[in-house]
Amino acid sequence: MKSSVKKSIVTRVRLAFLGVMLFSGAIAWKISRIQYQEGAKWRALEQERRISYQPVPATRGNIYSDNESIMATSLPFYRVAWDPSVASDALFTSRAVDSLARKLANFFQDRSAAEYRRKLLDARRDHERYIRLNSRQINFQEKKEMATWPIFRAKRRGGVIFEKVDKRFRPFGGLAQRTVGFVNEESNGAGLEYTFQRQLAGRAGEALFERVPGGLKPVYDGSEVKPQAGYDIKTTLDINLQDGAEDALYKALVANDAKYGCAILMEVKTGAIKAVANLGKATDGTYKEDYNYAFADQGRTEPGSTFKLASLMAVLEADPSLGLEDKVNTGPGRMFIGGAVKTDSHANGIITVQQVFEKSSNIGVARLVQEHFSGNPTQYTDYLKKFGLDKPLGFQMHGEALPYVKDPKDRSWSRTSLSTMSIGYELKLAPLQTLAFYNSVANGGVKVAPMIVKEIKEADQVIESFEPRVLNPQICSEATLRKVRAMLEGVVLEGTAKAIRPKDYTIAGKTGTAWKFKNGQYTKTYSTSFCGYFPADKPKYSCIVVIDSPSKGRIYGGDVAAPVFRDIADRTMARDQASQRPLLARVPARRTPVPLVRAGLQSEIALVCERIGLPGQTRATGGEDWVRLAAVRDTASVARTVSLSPDASATRPGRMPDVRGLTLRDALFMLENRGLHVQSAGTGRVRAQSLAAGEPVKRGATVSLALTPTATIAATPLALPEPEHTEIEENTLLVPAEMDSHVAKLAKATRPTAKPATAPRATSNTKGTKPTERVGEKGKATATSAARSTAKEKPTAEKKPSSAKASNSKSTAPTSAKGNTEKAKTEKKPAGKKEKPKARQPETHFTAQPAGKTRNG
To answer: Rounded to two decimals, what is the model's pTM?
Structure first.
């Protein structure tokens, strides 16, 4: 029994040993097979996995404003890495390592030079293939500097690796931040960056990279496929108007402690958006561009009273006989209409259709809509669909909200829906969709799609351009269009927005105030708005401003949103050159003398005439250097041109040139270049010369010149005829206020005094004192007093010139040189003492300017 057990154990041990031996033999055989028979195969596979082609991102395209100011661009930054195995022993010397370590320590300032030295030596000793020297990213200029350091200056032979990383940069900071947008690593985003991702991103390239501990090391084997940079996008945004819109909106949001707000400024004819501002209140109480409220879902709200334009347009289309002077009974301010009670903020009684719109009467609009469409509500909604209010605009940016306009076929339609919709409830529109409707009214009934991208470019080559797109060539009849435009103008002239009526141009628009719908009911939080266009007579821009949930007591659109509209309109009109021309034409022009033109160097005369705005024949035909006035009289004083002819005497060698009329500097230059000695007497221009023009003259001869001043006329005039001064119109509308005092002093110092015998007398002002006068060419004069800038004051009556003594009382009229602020003063003289006669002064001509009125609105 014992022997059988022992035998069994021995057998098992032997079998186990045999199994181990067989298994070990199999392992050895497999190792030998892999090492010798399949070695090449596995080495190739390892090499394939270690070295592979990786995508190289392309440089992203730029986003430009309308004048090609950069709103977003990609700047190159670099990460610094190093391959210690590349540098040769001749480069990797102890001195070079010490110098490189010091520079790295001074540059990054995160480690000492000793630590950097130890890091470089350890990497070299351990035969590492890739180490990142610092995680900080450097810019291009820093990269150029670093490439000159020891070891690194050998470039690839030194082992330095600059890994390029593109970063998006906005030169204007947060300006139009949400409109410009972003794209994250998951390819999600918003704004232009996300919408035009395909065009901006470009096409990625390929390059060979080796996988090493710490990252991917590029392998430069010449097989790289260069990436193709993205296209650029040129928008319609105006940087200055965008800044103004954001500033105006921000101030209003802070003043009213509102939840959010948006403002859109658009060109009427093209639909080009010049500014779009979106500001929302963050958790810390500040306002940031956190969402596109202008056209996205969160900005889609019940428009309120701004929708009354569409309701009354539908009524006028359905009943062309309805006039703006027809009467509507709005009762005591509370009335049951269409199954619901409608109220007005004030009792208006019986008013006209025009006043219904101007006063934004809910009762008046609801009654008109109910009377015309209660029997057929579908007709009303059909008009709204005709106006295009039920369809999206097809805006160029992703995320446009879908408008909601209730239809009688909807299950939610009730007997109160018609009258409620008429005043802007039970429907939802984004601010951009409301603006597009108002813009069609300003554009003569043509509804165009808003546009924010003008071109897609590659450098200077236009790849794709976008033209204005017409959505509806005529939204209503011409008769209806005239009526609704009159109503819109009336809102600013006499209605709920009369507080923003400007004096220099006109605005047409409509205020809006809507209750907010929360938790199944309307609450006493409000959304305020103002939508319109300007100038009302010749619309060029349309604009909408929406401010949500103001909480400082002001709740109406006319008090909250309308002032922002006016601020944006003022800034826009101030920058619009075409709009400035009518304003400039209403400002009285001032005539000022310009320098005398007699003779001189052609290039200098041409430069002076160009700078002071005297066009004309300032170039002689033969390319001559010296020219002379062609006419006896300065033509600039008559035709506002300077006609010059070549000075023949200046080109005749051995002959005395004609230097009369030249400045002393020019005369000296001309004569001394001929070897003549010059003696001069006096200052100013040459009046006479001792040697006649054309007379033979030899080098070394002496010439005497007599000069006469032209800037300040002497008390006793010399024989030279008095210079004729040119008068040109100078508009002082935009002269800075701080220059007024200097201009006044200069005018006082240089203005010649008129002869007492011919000084005209103007109608006396308050206290009987004559104001400062200007004498016209025909001898007429008017007082330049404060009446010039007062709209209600009548022009001063003109009187014929007559001899008179200076008045003994003080003048109350301000002089024009002080900008109508400095009072003219005259000295008091004894009654029996005669005034001492003054020396004769040359006559100075001024142009009489009527005291005009300033037109309001």
So the answer is: 0.65
